[in-house]
Automatic annotation (TrEMBL), chains A, B:
Gene name in the database record: leuB_2
Binding site for substrate: R98, R108, R136, D222
Superkingdom classification of source: Bacteria
Full protein name: 3-isopropylmalate dehydrogenase
Origin organism lineage: Bacteria, Pseudomonadati, Bacteroidota, Chitinophagia, Chitinophagales
Function: Catalyzes the oxidation of 3-carboxy-2-hydroxy-4-methylpentanoate (3-isopropylmalate) to 3-carboxy-4-methyl-2-oxopentanoate. The product decarboxylates to 4-methyl-2 oxopentanoate.
Broad class of where this protein is predominantly found: cytoplasm
Length: 357, 357
């Protein structure tokens, strides 16, 4: 019987709606398996700026460090997107959280539920059986290097940086995972142009020597963007830098039918953070139509990775699978064949999942 | 009756085979329309390193500057890809050519020939009618900033940089093109994280004021990587930075069925360079199976953009279309329904195109 403290950090936009459902699922698991989960909430992003002027208030960070795991929503607001000169931005909260908690490895499992074969824009025969686990480096690269302006603001610059130990620690995590799967690892870089990529490739080649049982390939990021769509089944574990991982995993969401299905785990030195890969989606915020399945599946990752509760995690995934098998869909994963009465809103599809746990 | 001097720069791998066919097509056009095209050849990439130690010998550069247009193949060699520490690399020749010739705008039209609807891994009903024109900035960004090592080689860095005038000149080209098309422009950046992207967005917003008739949207690169596959028809003209353009256009090749179909034009201050977006493909080099249609379509772009010969350009595109309509395919665009006798090699499909000009 585990006793755990979970911090809910909804953030902005649909983050509020989807983490509310994720929390219900955690509650149901606790009740059913006899665990004690206690909860607290914290602010981040635009809502934190509005309340405190700071996208990641110290109090939020303190709560994160003290909790056993964080269920996170999303950050972002159109107001800042259209104002490139804004000094304080919601995303700074997210980036600071990643850095301060040492969340250097972002795991993004891309797996299509068979029932969603028709929700994707990719042909079913290309997709069927695709199962990729991305390791995106999360605390380095151009995201965290020095950036600024010169020449009276007429020139902007960003510095991308990687050190050996940063590449090595994520590479080892990716190789370890490959060992428990189909034993294939694809490292993605742009070593034909970029120096950080050359360091990346050097280090991955060296780490590979310790994993002779894992088959390694190196691909350029441009070729990978193409191959992911052309032949997704050729990939098992993919490891890549922060920026390339950001782009490739969003692209790969099409393999899973919709971004609304994709969960992620950010882990590293301390508390793990679990979040959908979708963003704050202000266009549908407050309408009750957001797909909460990515947040629910993030809760499943949380149970498995941070708490070691594998059976509980499987119970969540299986409940999602049954809901899809029963024909229920949110709007984003419905298609023209879906009967209108099977298209549910955020809360209603959450109920269906809860019933099946 | 035009009189023009064309430089053929085959480069590495299948570059040799495909530009040979591209040149035959130019010859046929000259004969048929009564133009005089003279030719020369120059070295670049791995073959140039082997011959002279330099990936872009001065002589090649001189020939490029003196010619009216360059038909280019590809550069790259696996030898360097697996040796991240190599100091001299084929790609340096390509990058130097782009910089020295001031080729700041890389146009990549993505359009599916109807006959290839089934060659793509994307569903035909999602694809049909997709028609995107990419403007990739080609002489700035992380490609050309300072890069190196520090901490005894343990840390690598790359500096991404953009100045206002660099963004403005490509933005204007993209807006001008949008005016001649469906009047929609999507500018792609990562302004929520990257400073060069914030400058990019600022400048595009400003240029947009001069084009009130063009509908503008700004998308993040991660979202765009997803949307390109989910709903390619929503895009008309897309303008983006060097690195993002590299990744997104390779991905978008799946919209056109295969990378083997995609041509590009690099233009700017002087001589224009025309090249397939595919690479040197050493795995199929010398086997006579490479798809030359991208090089042929690059020749069509050359005729149109550098020489202003629109009817001649259309004659080439129409010949390619007829060859596809007649059922001929190279291996990369064939599928399980293609009869074996319709699958042709590089030279044979080139012949079919020549016959139809
Ligand atoms: C919101 C943004 C800063 C973030 C990122 O780029 O990392 C998001 O796209 C993600 O993938 O988590
Ligand atoms: C070969 C490489 C340096 C090049 C690039 O990244 O620009 C290629 O991928 C391209 O798109 O032309």
């Amino acid at each position: 019987m585990a006793s755990k403290h979970i911090l809910i950090v909804p953030g902005d936009g649909i983050g509020q709606e989807v983490t509310a459902v994720g929390k219900q699922v955690l509650n149901k698991i606790a009740a059913k398996f006899g665990h004690t989960f206690t909860y607290d909430e914290a602010l981040i992003g635009h809502v934190a700026i509005e309340a405190t002027g700071n996208p990641l208030p110290d109090e939020s960070l303190k709560k994160m460090r003290k909790s056993d795991a964080v269920l996170f929503g999303a950050v972002g607001h159109p107001k800042y997107d259209n104002d490139p000169s804004a000094k304080v931005r919601p995303e700074q909260g997210l980036l600071k959280m990643r850095k301060e908690l040492g969340l250097y490895a972002n795991l993004r499992p891309i797996k299509l539920f068979d029932e969603l074969l028709d929700a994707s824009s990719i042909r079913p025969e290309i997709l069927k059986g695709a199962d990729i686990l991305f390791f995106r480096e999360l605390t380095g690269d151009i995201y965290f290097g020095e950036k600024g302006r010169k020449n009276d603001g007429d020139t902007a610059y960003d510095i991308a940086e990687y050190s050996r130990y940063e590449v090595e620690r994520i590479a080892r995590k990716a190789f370890d995972a490959a060992r428990t799967r189909r034993k294939k690892l694809c490292s993605v870089d742009k070593a034909n142009v970029i120096e950080t990529s050359r360091l990346w490739r050097e280090v991955v080649q060296k780490v590979a020597l310790d994993y002779p049982d894992v088959e390694v390939e190196h691909q350029f990021v441009d070729a990978t963007a193409m191959l992911l769509i052309k032949d997704p089944r050729r990939f098992d574990v993919v490891v890549t830098a922060n920026l390339f991982g950001d782009i490739l995993t969003d692209e790969a969401s099409q393999i899973a039918g919709s971004m609304g299905m994709l969960a992620s785990a950010s882990i590293g030195d301390g508390t793990g953070v679990y979040e959908p890969i979708h963003g704050s989606a202000h266009d549908i915020t407050g309408k009750g139509v957001a797909n909460p399945l990515a947040s629910i599946l993030s809760a499943a990752l949380l149970l498995d990775i941070s708490f070691g509760l594998k059976a509980e995690s499987d119970a969540v995934i299986s409940a999602v699978d049954q809901v899809l098998k029963a024909g229920f869909r949110t709007r984003d994963i419905a298609n023209s064949q879906t009967p209108a009465d099977k298209i549910l809103g955020t809360a209603a599809i959450g109920e269906e999942v809860l019933k099946r746990i």
